[in-house]
Amino acid sequence: MSDLPRGSTVRRDAGLYGYERALRRHGIEPIAGVDEAGRGACAGPLVAGAAILPAGKAGVVPGLADSKLLTEKARERCYEQVVRRAVAWSVVVISHEECDALGMHVANIEALRRAVALLDVPPAYVLTDGFPVDGLGVPGLAVWKGDRVAACISAASVLAKVTRDRIMRELDVAWPAYDFKTHKGYITDVHAAALTAHGPSPVHRMRFVNVRRAAGLEPALAVPPGAAPSPVALPSEALGQAEDGAHAGREQG
Could you tell me if 118 and 5 are in contact, meaning their C-beta atoms sit under 8 angstroms apart? Predict the structure, then answer.
């Protein structure tokens, strides 16, 4: 990954399209954004999206923002707009089995690489959310809170989250006891209670300590006498914060 071209600056008040405008002033285009959804979940797939938005008014997506800040209906509207307006877009789904086989960090990097590689129009520059991604084949920049400050990353975030949410609603039909349609595989009190009551489903990620504990592969947490056991898995900063205020399960390395 690299910095912005020499002489480029992005003002704090530049708005959601400031990074793309700064790069285009230096003749750099197409510009792709890439982001993922589901990294901190302990069930279901990891999904990555990539998007290249056109310059000018054609690339302005009404209501676009970080997908986690939008309501479900607003995300669906943005999704349709991104798909309609994008010069190129892609979505990659990494199964829970592959997440277990690779580990979440490697699976996350691989998903982002695949999403960029699948774009019909090869980008000249890639913006990523929060951390650098090597192996993209072109220069790029990791943008802090990129899904909130760079339009192409926000668009990629919407593609990834809407796709994953749809998958989790389908998984809820197959395994209704876990309420996947509500928490989307992230750990909540309801999800933790379902894991305790039913054990892991076939789509849970077995690298996560809370899932392994529910399967009897890890010792149960010690609970002081008279205290109620907490249904929420231990959070893991290494996996980032789970969406919507839930806690991520801790991955077993």
Answer: no
